[in-house]
Amino acid sequence: MATTKPKKTASSRKKKTAAKAGRHATIRMYNVGFGDAFLVTLTDGATKQRILFDCGTIEADPASPLPNVVKRIVKDVTDPDGVPRIDVVVCTHRHKDHVSGFGNADWDDVEVKEVWMPWTEHPTDPDARQIRNTQSSLALSLGNWLTARQAAATTPEERAKLQRSGDIVANALMLTNDKAMKTVHSGFAGNAERRFLPEKAIAASPSAHRTFATPVLPGVNVHVLGPSRARDVIRDMDPPKGKSFLRMQGAVATPDGRPPAPFPNESQLPANPVLGTMWPEDEAAIQRAGLLEDLAIAVALDKAVNGTSLMIILEIAGSYFLFPGDAKWGTWVAAMQDPEWREMLSRVTFYKVGHHGSHNATPREFVEDLMPEKISAMVSTRTRAIWPDIPRVPLLDGLTAKHVVFARSDLMATAVTPFHLDSGVVEVDIAI
Length: 432
Known about the structure:
Layout (H helix, E strand, L loop, with lengths): L9 H10 L4 E7 L3 E11 L2 E13 L6 H11 L8 E6 L5 H4 L11 E8 L7 H27 L3 H17 L6 H8 L6 E5 L13 E2 L7 E7 L4 H4 L45 H8 L6 H13 L4 E6 L2 E5 L5 H9 L1 H7 L2 E5 L11 H7 L5 E4 L13 H9 L3 E4 L10 E4 L2 E7 L1
Helix pairs in contact: 4-5, 4-9, 5-9
């Protein structure tokens, strides 16, 4: 990575922007801790469009509480007339670390034109409803069971283990109909249109090219690479050996050939655990999971929700901006096997690093064979005791080997040109 330190003043950023000719995209990453909040602003002369990808955390930076981040975002999208406006809000999936910020009342006054969600959020789609009901029931049941177990625990070790399981389940407990998801589904000012992606009429087959345009984002083509409606795609969660960025030095695969576990004790999962979106056969399997450890079940549930994550490419005048949310292996493989999508992935201009830098998000093939050199990337992350190897050092090293300049939300002070720093925010400006 380059070593030139970025400019830190607002005036220097304005001068830099003013010097640019034509349309450009500014991408802001907010320090939400372990979570995501990205604001994309497309500017062309006097016109401006804004797209917000997610707003949530499960462990905020003490210096940047989530309510403060929400207020900052609202301030950043407020126009000179005093009205906060966002053209599109994207909720990639239901996990707390991506949506909890929408529970803040400050969103009630933000005018939004469209809200995009994965198809699994559609209120009347029978498959989507089945998935939500199954996940919600399992999350609530497991959460209650863990609470009772923790109260009865007799040793610090047992309590700590149950706490780890509870933390993971708490992320999935956003499946209940709380304020955050109510805001996403029916809140904001401005009577926002809701889109559930990919739209069913478009996704006639798993390989369908799911692209649409919307009048609220003129000149932008939106490519929806996931989640698929095919069971075998969104249930395929873990990369086979050698396909992911493995653990740091000295790590080896597990005896059954699976890559090293991204979370503690995940190796205790069976060879074919409950993965991906939960269908009836998955529910039956997890109900029989009495032999599994609580943590293993919690991890399987966590993965199931991530399997429904939106994976989107914004195409703007030949530039491609990749926002994969927490999309996992099945979605990535389907995208890389589709000739048109593979071509887009080989031309990305900007990459929001998937799933906070975990092992089963960014495939090695994408980085080594497809990703262009010298692009900009951002990873919103925070190392936690429960997930000590996130972000994965081999992944970051892989980006560096491709001369990708990336910024980390947990190490904003180390960001280098072309990134610009502000209080609790790092941004990059890309000509398009």
